Amino acid sequence: MRTKLTILGLIALALLSYGLYQALVAAPTEQTMGDVQRIFYYHVPSAWTAFLLFFCNFIASAIYLLNRSQRSDAFALATAEVGVVFCTVVLVTGPIWAKPVWGIWWTWDARLTTTLILWLIYVSYLMLRRYSSGGQTPVLAAALAIFGFIDVPIVYFSIRYFRTQHPQPVIAGAEGSGIDPLMMKALMINWLAFIVFGAIVVWLRYKLERARQQVEEAHALREEQSLEQPRVDKPAVDARAS
Amino acid sequence: MSTLSAVLRSTLAKDLRMEWRSKDAINSMLFFALLVVVIFSFSFSPTAEESRQIAGGLIWVAFLFAAVVALNQTWARELRNQVLDAYRVSPAPANSLFLAKAIGNFIFVGVLEVLMAPLFVVFYNLRPVGPAWQLGLVGALATWALVVNGTFFAAMSIRTRSREVMLPLILFPISIPALLAMVESTTAILTGDASPVFWINLLAVYDVVFTTACLLLFETVLNAE
Question: Engineered SS bond to B158: which of A169, A194, B75, B139, CB 3.0-4.6 Å?
């Protein structure tokens, strides 16, 4: 596992450095916004990665409710945590770009508000996980994840009707959209770099959660055994139980 | 089906009778909503025209906070004497229990709204410019939107360590689109500036989607050990 991790880490490092070069040097400067626009190469890939991770969380939660495997629960937790981190990056880089371009830090526009509510939903998911105890946590969390996921399109449509100001999608959007091929290259390399980096973090978090689950299982098993075969010569167990 | 309705009816009758005799939920909700109304009017001291603009938001924020008081009590009663565990081992369908609780909360919050509405009218000098009958429709759809998810999440938060605190933390983020829809439709009716149809439809869609989700997942959540 360590070798695989090192290789993946090196790949991520190489991609991130190349992506940085692409974003800061190779990509042409945007005509109206200038260099501020370069934050786009981090803002948009973070958003896509966060959405991808939340989607993975939904799938893992649904699988957990079907087969109750601890693996999918650990995966759901890992993707939600890392997704919240990427979502936070989106919410921080957005205002940094918006202040010079729009003149304001924040506006209650459809995409911004949806992302913020998405962030809120998954933070509440993590809080539920943190504050519930015992074996029921995964079930409750998985149910909340499903509620959160089906809420997102409703949020999006309601707020899109409410008001919208965010730039329309420049990629595969309406007619007249589209960006310079060099910009596209920088964007895609950064996205790939973020996915690889995100995958490493998710993987580590997944391993950590699996280890925690196994420790918990081992504890439970030992307690069960000590209940089945009460031994008088082992007072340590009794002292801990009382 | 007959078991479903029988369990539903008896649970609902029991909850209503208990509430009728104790008046725990309705009293605390009423007083809480009244406090919100008073505090808001001090915080903003609006003129008649302004109050018409903000009343939609104010009414529903007050009802949302007050509803949490009732929702938190939904399952707390059943924890005493392990009633919830008895439900779990009984063959009674879980969804009938859920529906009984949700309908009970719907009635409590509905009574609260009917009692509080005149107060809002008096304190904020309200007079609907748009069609007033739509307010009833919005009220019913919005109340169901609050209580259906609220009842479900209350069953979840009752299992966590910080019971009462947890419910708003998980309920409010999910309820944001419903809150937006109820506020916008009420404001549209009160000011008569815009058509509330889109928002009423959105509330209806929200109700259908989340009622389905609750009914599909409630048994799983109830039986989570």
Answer: B75
Chain B residues touching residue A159 (CB < 8 angstroms): 177, 180
Q: Is A68 left (phi over 0), alpha (psi -120 to 50) or beta?
A: left
Whole-number pLDDT of residue B209: 94
Tracing tokens 């991790």 back to the chain, one arrives at: A5
pLDDT digits (tens, 9 = 90+) for A122-145: 999 999 998 887 778 889 999 999
Q: Is A131 on the interface with B (CB under 8 A)?
A: yes
In this predicted model, what pLDDT tens digit does every residue of B128-186 receive, in sequence order? Answer: 777 778 888 999 999 999 999 999 999 888 888 777 788 999 999 999 999 989 988 88
Structure tokens at A73: 């629960």
Closest by CA to A195, choosing from A36, A81, A63, A86, is: A86
Tell me whether B48 touches chain A (CB under 8 Å): no
For A154, half-sphere exposure in the C-beta direction (CA atoms, 13 angstrom radius) is: 26
Query: CA–CA separation, B70 vs B108, rounded Å?
Result: 8
Structure tokens at B137: 């429709």
- Reported ipTM: the value is 0.84
- Residue A161, both tokens: 């009707």
